[in-house]
Structure formats: structure tokens, C-alpha cells
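Q: Predict the bound structure with iron/sulfur cluster.
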Amino acid sequence: MNETLTKELKLPEEKHPMENILRMDRIPHIWCSTCGIGIAVTSFAIALEKAKIPLDQVCVVSGIGCSGRVAGYVKLDSFHSTHGRAIPFATGLKLGNPKLKTIVFSGDGDLFGIGGNHFIHSARRNMDMLVLCINNFIYAMTGGQCAATTPLTANTSTSPYGNYEYPFNLPHLADSCGAVYVARWTALHVRRLANSITEALNKRGFSFIEIICPCSTIYARRNRLGSGLDIMKFYHDNSVIKHGANTKDLDIGYQSKIIVGKFVDRERPTFLDCLNDWNRKKFGDKFREYGGPDD
Ligand code: SF4
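A: Predicted complex:
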């Protein structure tokens, strides 16, 4: 075959649609097929584009676990921190450089079991960050143990006869601690989730989005729930959209209906607003000299 013909037949090199946000050299990722984490990352990538935030001002922090691997795959300033400590790590980043858009991307075990205390205090202080929580109802990577979100009666490696502890209602926890934006979606609601992340990225203060995701390998297998596709069908048949629902009513039972939507969208002064206000009152003109921000 002559050279000209070979050139003509050569397919153009396709650019991956998410190449500007993913570290392609790290692909393939470690997530199991039909895991929901990849879908959440796709929604996040779509949202970042829509929110039009300069990527050099975005910083992603993850904890430990399957969801904790997100930080390693995004082509942004990102940190894979220690178990349960993603929120204090992100807090330090934000206080060190208030212009950063800090995003915590982690799992339910990391954020609400080991890191639960950090979550409640960060929401109370209205620390300016977005927390995206992948909730798959179990500690997946670390051995399939019962989590603070495991529904009653569900089987895990540490509750082989069924869980008897009441799980957290995450949107209610975030709401009652003072979060300014609270939403919940499943991995099936890709576009709604992307829109919600876009909205939250443009908010000041502590925002929280719970993303219910299938863990086909551990949670679904232990509970004989079928494949990831079966779980997506379950979400399709059992999710109910109720924007503005009272967060007290958002408990999730074992294989029960899942209420999704945007529940809270309000304004409160952020931690830095309060700190700067207090310093202005205390130090007056000297505040600027001490390194306080311009008004
Ligand atoms: S173990 Fe579960 S959560 Fe972890 S990658 Fe596999 S399916 Fe996803």
C-alpha cells in the first residue's frame, strides 16, 4: 500500500472528552465495572466545565477508600489525604489560600465514620467548601465492614446476620449542622447531579451533595442484590424527586424508596467572613497591615 493511501486511511486521533480534567496516564482506573464512582466523576467533570471556574483555582481532596482514589485521577491540584481527614486538610488549604475552590470528594465511611467529627464542625463553621460524598452504604475497599450509613438489616462483613444500628440520614445531618446547600442524587441521575454540582460550585459556604452509588462487588454481592445494572434499575424504579423536602424525612431503609433532590439552598456568612469581620472590628485599620484581605 503506498504511503499517501496509508495516511488517508489513518483514523484521526480522537481526543477523550474528559482529557482536560482526567490524568489519562493513570487510566485504566481501579474501580470495578458497574461501580458508580466513575459516573460521579463524569458528572463532576461536566459541572466543572459548566461552572466556568479556572481549573488552576480548583483543588480536590480525598480521603481513603475506593472513592478516595478520585484525587489521583483528576488533572487538578489534588491531594489523597489520610483516613477521615479530607475535610481538615481542605480547611487548611482554604485558609492558606482563600481564593481556592476546595472540593472534598470521598466516601461515606471516610467522611461520616472516621471523619464524622470534622464534617459536623466544618458545616457548623460554614467553611467554604463543597463536599461530594459517594454513599455506597459500606466500607468497600477496606473489607466490607458496616458503615455509619449501612441500612438496617443489611449484610456486611461485620454484620453477617444483618445490621441493627440506625444509619445516619446524611442530608439531615448536613442541614442541622448548618450547610448552606444540601442535595442528594443517585448515580442514575447524571444530568441532575451535574447541574447540582454546578450550582454548589457557584455557592459560598459549606455545600454538601450525597451521591448514592452502586458497589456491585461488595455491598451488592453480600446482599444478593444482583449486578450494578440491577441496582441502577432499582434506582430507576425507587427514586422519588422531592425538591425542598424536609430533611428529617430522608432516612434510607434497606431497599426502600430513596428521596432525591435539592433540599437546602440558603445564605450564611462563611467562616472567613466572620473571622475577617471580627478582626476588622478588633484591629481597625491595622487589620490590612496584618495581612487581612481587601474589602
Ligand atoms: S469495591 Fe465497590 S465501591 Fe469499590 S470500586 Fe468496586 S464496586 Fe466500587
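A: The longest helix spans residues 37-51.
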